[in-house]
């Protein structure tokens, strides 16, 4: 949208200066680079922070408002000068007369400001402090502003629904926050539709690479973004039960925990384990076997050579089917395995080793049956840990889901609820891009699968209705006489999720207006008004039934290149295939053939064109539809009559028996609709847009103006799973009312009750009712806390849904969760629907560096950083100086009210927690197993993750607030403080005491740096020489090494300059090892809560400079390598390398000393020794989760007791000097841990190091076997 232009002479009732002034311009190098420089002598009445409107009366130009920032004396005789770039932006001529007019701040405030930031970590607390500091500041579009160490660029400004070039930020101004350096995950759904062709002859995957990815990368390069991109391909495969041996049961103990007896490397045979992991097979509610696959092809890539991304995508696409063991539905490839019993050497418990000799081959699932929700939740498990390994150059997180499907999915209701709540709580935005054409129904659409016994909620729901996000919302029934059937587990339920933004690649913006305005682009109206049929390849393939109807031809040729083309050109082949439709092959056991694919639909004497035309006739035939005829059981007539279930009770008068004409296209239907319908409100044009259409609710149909008898419902099963991907098939199941109105029409917000979301009372009904899943009413747009979490911040209405193309602005600059929300429950709802807790905080008596008001501000900052939002009520704009001060922060299901009492100098905290329903009460997780591709072994490994609906572990705000108050002085690993971990690596080759002394002298300089930052508290670190280490080991011969103790130190980071602008007291924590020796790394953790990202970056930069000056190597490492449980990161797969240490030399501890020597020769350095907790170190990694067991007799020797404990739970960890790899040495195995390179340039690649380690293990085992044979 073009910037609003106005006449230069303002008509506002403000005091005009009585003289004109000559305008001059200056560059940014003049003075301090201020936008406006005036001569105080020419303006004696001017004051700092005054707002002036500057105009040239002889010409038109955009409105210019400037603010006086300084009245310092100037050199020269000019009167008024503005920045050269601003003069050009506002089209002002130099050395021309200008009129200066003083205005009030309220005359120049803006409603929305879009800010973007880059190459810096800005928490939402930093952004809030940035806004508070910028209130009253005049801002210009395109200009960068920095305050409190935070840099942000004003991209666009909106005032009174018009784009302006300048304006003043007020307290009510809403910020639209976008990041140019986000952490983005591309989730590419590799369903079988990716191998289909569009009508233009281009394969959907080609459209993904050539149109979407290339276009997006070009826009990234144009805007100079620096995103960190991870590309993940995922898919699902289905298996037949007869592929497996008769005794196979994926739920049996031997197969559920089979990875505990499976490993990699040359030590598998010596440990009597199975080599490699088997399939991670799950069982759905229908009893079908399936396996979910994930492959990370690009991880945390920041460019700049994006051409490598295209090569990787094409290579993965070419090898995907073979790599994931796909097969055709009619093929049968048997899976085989061997099971042998192996007792655990430590616990003597019986165990079973499953060696898969032939892995199963599966049929790729369609997009509708894919693992879309599972992929989102696995990604959210990474985003949940955003406080770990905090990147100081990234801000914001986003998910881009790319699919070739129509955004229709069969999902588990429980998993859908968990995903929705997690997406809302974490504040992660997701863009779903569909590469195909949109269907004739609302999207996205969830089909809740029938519930398994473990998924049955305590509140039942009726089948065959579309529920809104809140089940307490009343839903419009399909007919006034329809009875509510009894709930069954086999019925499908439809749901339209509001948290997914679906766009279609072919509906792209062509005018480019979206780049120039915050308002929604209007060029898509023409595209939405047109009818877009699905491509021919997406229709049901009635020519090739053995291909399971919708199996892509390209994928079929890839999996079976020797087979002939399914679309044979000969007439005989076509007729032969058509006549065999009544005997479907056995391969259809995986997929049910579409309901319309039966012999009565097809006649062998027809040609292919006539056959398809006849099918179209039966779909759109409207003759005699009001007089349904009985259909004999087992037979279907060749002409389809609309039954009572399909005929909507809201049928318009035009649909009479006399209207017996075949409608062959949607355009003909629209033409007949407009010409024969007297009621224009009931017969709107069929379009892809979303106009305000009346609700064809429950009313009796009228024929020729006379009422008719009510239609009795004929409830029949409607299997969307077999017809949702085809708009042609969907029309057969829809009423004519659905054709006459927009398929996605919803009542707009203007037609809703005018009650405010803050004061409105919740609507309560006894039970949910039926709803047409293809015509949503106003209930779907009910304002809730989840909906208002994002939608209130955008200047356009979110109640009007239409089909749009890719949101390039969101893809290029992803949005960050807004700071504020306008939804707050009514007092009676707080009382009835929430539980309340209360506590009061006071500062320590000797706390001189922090005031109670500063504590209040910091408490608000911490909740904003944890994705809470400030509640803005209508009366918040009124400035109230009375005490106490109240802050309301909301996460929807959790609300905090902070009340500051100035007289008592206390902060009262009220915490409201929404009473959960069903599963949310106990927050029981969904445990998910999947297969992750490992590039080192060229195979898939079993992984396991847990999905929690509510944040886990729970935020202990009482402890956090006491930490801010000074009562607690530690930040343990269980807290959600942001942190970064470093290690100081001693140099290799320290052999003498002189070398040790030289190194310790360098290390002492780093300790002096820490001491200068800590202040009065003494930093105590013991420097232990190799002689001291040997002496300590001799005191306990053969005993395993202990972990190093660590201490916390507080560092005050506040400066007088920052305190002059902001009252926040900033500090961070250092976590240091108490002991350091030359044979081990030294750990340095930087942890913070009450500190901005720029301050932490300055501290770490100073630490790096000091280490470089002292000649000490400082390396950043990921935190998941330092915690016991390794599978914190779901896309990094540690490997178990069996290596029975006790059998090498007869003593495990003696063997560990030998292993230590060999690992040092391979370039490793000791990183610490630990005893794992009850959770173990990861799924299938040797030290499993501790389980209750029978008590055993205590050993007589304390040494043996310690040894047994070490065998069961202990490990030593090593880090490689020249490769991003860690190793954990267990009593009978090694655990390979991949790491991040970060900014370190490593000399050795992980695959080369893995080969060296395996060669060393093989030689050691061979030497052991030769010694045993002697």
Rg over alpha carbons: 34 Å
Name the structural class: alpha+beta
User: What is the terminal-to-terminal distance?
Assistant: 87 Å
Gross geometry = globular
Pfam families: IML1, IML1_N
Organism: Saprolegnia parasitica (strain CBS 223.65)
GO molecular function: GTPase activator activity
Protein name: DEP domain-containing protein
Q: If you had to describe this structure to a student in words, what would you say it looks like?
A:
The protein has 1270 residues and is of the alpha+beta class. Among the domains are: 18-103, Barwin-like endoglucanases (Beta Barrel), CATH 2.40.40.10; 108-179, Vcp-like ATPase, Chain A, domain 2; 182-247 and 287-337 and 357-452 and 494-506, Rossmann fold, CATH 3.40.50; 823-916, TATA-Binding Protein, CATH 3.30.310; 977-1032 and 1043-1116, TATA-Binding Protein, CATH 3.30.310; 1135-1186 and 1206-1268, no CATH class. Helix content is 23%, strand content 22%. It has 27 helices and 53 strands. The strands form 13 sheets. Strands 16, 17, 20, 21, 24, 25, 27, 31, 40 and 41 form a 10-stranded mixed sheet that branches. It has a 6-stranded mixed sheet with strand order 3-7-2-8-4-6. It has a 6-stranded mixed sheet with strand order 34-36-37-38-39-35. The longest helix is centred in the last third of the chain and has 24 residues, at 1246-1269.
Summarize the structure.
The protein is an alpha+beta fold and 1270 residues long. It is 23% helix and 22% strand. Helix 2 packs across helix 18 and helix 20 (993-1014) runs antiparallel to helix 23 (1093-1110).
């Amino acid at each position: 949208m073009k910037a609003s232009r106005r006449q230069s002479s303002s008509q506002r009732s403000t005091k005009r200066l009585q003289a004109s002034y000559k305008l001059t311009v200056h560059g940014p190098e003049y003075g301090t680079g201020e936008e406006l420089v005036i001569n105080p002598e020419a303006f004696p009445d001017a004051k700092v922070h005054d707002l002036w409107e500057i105009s040239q009366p002889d010409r038109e130009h955009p409105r210019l408002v400037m603010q006086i920032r300084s009245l310092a004396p100037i050199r020269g005789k000019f009167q008024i000068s503005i920045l050269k770039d601003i003069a050009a932006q506002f089209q002002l001529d130099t050395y021309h007369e200008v009129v200066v007019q003083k205005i009030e701040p309220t005359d120049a405030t803006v409603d929305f400001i879009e800010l973007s930031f880059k190459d810096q970590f800005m928490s939402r607390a930093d952004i809030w402090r940035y806004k508070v500091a910028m209130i009253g500041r005049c801002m210009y579009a395109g200009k960068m502003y920095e305050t409190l160490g935070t840099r942000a660029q004003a991209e666009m400004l909106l005032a009174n629904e018009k784009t302006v070039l300048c304006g003043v930020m007020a307290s009510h101004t809403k910020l639209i926050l976008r990041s140019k350096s986000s952490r983005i995950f591309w989730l590419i759904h590799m369903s079988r539709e990716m191998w289909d062709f569009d009508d233009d002859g281009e394969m959907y995957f080609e459209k993904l690479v050539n149109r979407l990815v290339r276009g997006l990368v070009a826009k990234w390069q144009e805007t100079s973004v620096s995103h960190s991109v991870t590309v993940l391909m995922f898919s699902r495969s289905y298996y037949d039960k007869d592929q497996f041996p008769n005794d196979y049961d994926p739920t049996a103990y031997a197969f559920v925990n089979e990875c505990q007896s499976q490993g990699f490397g040359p030590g598998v045979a010596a440990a009597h384990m199975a080599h490699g992991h088997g399939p991670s097979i799950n069982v759905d509610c229908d009893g079908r076997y399936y396996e979910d696959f994930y492959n990370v092809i690009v991880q945390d890539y920041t460019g700049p050579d994006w051409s490598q991304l295209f090569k990787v995508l094409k290579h993965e696409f070419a090898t995907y089917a073979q790599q994931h063991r796909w097969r055709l539905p009619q093929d049968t490839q048997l899976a085989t395995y061997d099971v042998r019993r192996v007792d655990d050497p430590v616990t003597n418990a019986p165990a079973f080793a499953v060696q898969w000799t032939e892995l199963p081959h599966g049929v790729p699932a369609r997009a509708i049956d894919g693992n879309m929700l599972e992929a989102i939740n696995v990604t959210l498990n990474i985003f949940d840990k955003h406080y770990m390994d905090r990147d100081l150059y990234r801000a914001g997180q986003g998910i881009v889901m790319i699919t070739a499907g129509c955004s229709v999915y069969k999902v588990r209701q429980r998993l859908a609820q968990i995903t929705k709540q997690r997406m809302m709580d974490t504040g992660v935005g997701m863009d779903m891009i569909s590469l195909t054409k949109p269907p004739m129904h609302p999207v996205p659409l969830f089909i809740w699968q029938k519930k398994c016994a473990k998924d049955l909620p305590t509140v039942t729901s009726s089948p065959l209705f579309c529920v809104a996000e809140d089940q307490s919302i009343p839903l419009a029934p399909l007919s006034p006489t329809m009875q509510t059937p009894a709930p069954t587990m086999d019925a499908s339920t439809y749901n339209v999720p509001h948290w997914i933004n679906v766009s279609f690649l072919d509906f792209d913006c062509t005018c480019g207006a979206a780049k120039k305005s915050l308002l929604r682009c209007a060029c898509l109206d023409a595209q939405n008004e047109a009818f877009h049929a699905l491509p021919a390849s997406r229709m049901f393939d009635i020519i090739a039934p053995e291909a399971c109807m919708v199996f892509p031809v390209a994928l079929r040729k890839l999996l079976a290149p020797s087979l002939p083309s399914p679309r044979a050109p000969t007439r005989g082949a076509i007729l032969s295939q058509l006549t065999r439709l009544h005997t479907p092959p056995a391969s259809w056991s995986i997929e049910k053939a579409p309901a319309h694919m039966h012999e009565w639909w097809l006649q062998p004497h027809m040609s292919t064109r006539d056959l398809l035309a006849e099918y179209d006739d039966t779909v759109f035939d409207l003759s005699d539809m009001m007089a349904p005829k009985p259909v004999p059981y087992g037979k279907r007539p060749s002409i389809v009559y609309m039954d009572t279930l399909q005929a909507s009770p809201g049928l318009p008068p035009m649909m009479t028996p006399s209207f017996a004409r075949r409608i062959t296209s949607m355009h003909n239907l629209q033409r007949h609709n407009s010409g024969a319908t007297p009621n224009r409100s009931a017969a709107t044009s069929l379009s892809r847009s979303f106009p305000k259409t009346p609700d064809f609710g429950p009313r009796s149909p009228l024929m020729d103006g006379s009422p008719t008898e009510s239609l009795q419902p004929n409830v029949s099963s409607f299997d969307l799973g077999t017809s949702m991907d085809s708009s042609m098939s969907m029309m057969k199941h829809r009423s004519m009312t659905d054709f006459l109105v927009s398929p996605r029409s919803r009542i707009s917000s203007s037609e809703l009750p005018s009650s405010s979301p803050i004061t409105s009372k919740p609507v309560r009904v006894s039970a949910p009712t039926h709803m047409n899943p293809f015509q949503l009413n106003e209930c779907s747009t009910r304002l809730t806390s989840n909906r208002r979490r994002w939608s209130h911040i955008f200047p356009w209405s979110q109640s009007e849904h239409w089909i749009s193309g890719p949101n390039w602005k969101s893809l290029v600059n992803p949005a960050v969760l807004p700071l504020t929300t306008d939804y707050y429950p009514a007092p009676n709802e707080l009382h009835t629907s929430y539980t309340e807790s209360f506590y009061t905080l006071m500062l320590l008596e000797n706390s001189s560096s922090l005031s109670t008001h500063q504590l209040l501000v910091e408490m608000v900052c911490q909740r904003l950083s944890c994705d809470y939002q400030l509640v803005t009520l209508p009366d918040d704009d009124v400035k109230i100086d009375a005490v106490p001060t109240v802050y309301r922060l909301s996460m929807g299901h959790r609300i905090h009210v902070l009340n500051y009492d100035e007289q008592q100098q206390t902060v009262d905290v009220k915490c409201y927690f929404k009473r959960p329903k069903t599963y949310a009460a106990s927050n029981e997780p969904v445990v998910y197993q999947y297969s992750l591709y490992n590039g080192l072994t060229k195979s898939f490994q079993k992984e396991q993750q847990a999905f929690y609906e509510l944040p886990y572990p729970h935020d202990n705000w009482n402890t956090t607030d006491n930490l801010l108050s000074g009562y607690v002085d530690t930040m343990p690993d269980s807290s959600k403080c942001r942190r970064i971990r470093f290690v100081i690596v001693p140099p290799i080759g320290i052999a003498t005491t002189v070398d040790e002394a030289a190194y310790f002298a360098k290390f002492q300089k780093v300790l002096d740096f820490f001491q200068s930052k800590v202040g009065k508290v003494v930093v105590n670190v013991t420097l232990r020489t190799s002689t001291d280490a040997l002496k300590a080991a001799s005191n306990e011969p053969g005993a395993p090494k202990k972990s190093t103790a660590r201490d916390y130190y507080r560092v005050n980071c506040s400066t007088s300059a920052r305190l002059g602008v902001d009252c926040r007291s900033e500090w961070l924590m250092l976590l240091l090892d108490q002991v350091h020796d030359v044979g081990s790394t030294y750990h340095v953790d930087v942890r913070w809560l009450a500190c901005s990202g720029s301050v932490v970056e300055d501290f770490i930069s100073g630490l790096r400079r000091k280490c470089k000056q002292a000649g000490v190597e400082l390396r950043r490492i990921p935190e998941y390598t330092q915690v016991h449980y390794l599978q914190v990161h779901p896309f990094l797969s540690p490997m178990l390398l069996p290596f029975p240490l006790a059998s090498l030399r007869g003593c495990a501890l003696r063997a560990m000393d030998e292993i230590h020597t060999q690992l040092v020769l391979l370039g490793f350095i000791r990183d610490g020794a630990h005893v794992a907790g009850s959770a173990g170190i990861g799924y299938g990694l040797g030290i499993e989760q501790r389980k209750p067991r029978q008590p055993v007799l205590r050993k007589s020797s304390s040494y043996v007791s310690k040894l047994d404990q070490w065998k069961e739970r202990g490990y030593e960890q090593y880090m490689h000097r020249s490769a991003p790899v860690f190793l954990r040495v267990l009593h009978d195995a090694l655990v390979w841990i991949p790491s991040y390179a970060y900014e370190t340039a490593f000399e050795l690649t992980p695959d080369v190091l893995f080969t060296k380690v395996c060669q060393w293990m093989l030689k050691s085992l061979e030497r052991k076997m030769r010694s045993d044979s002697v």
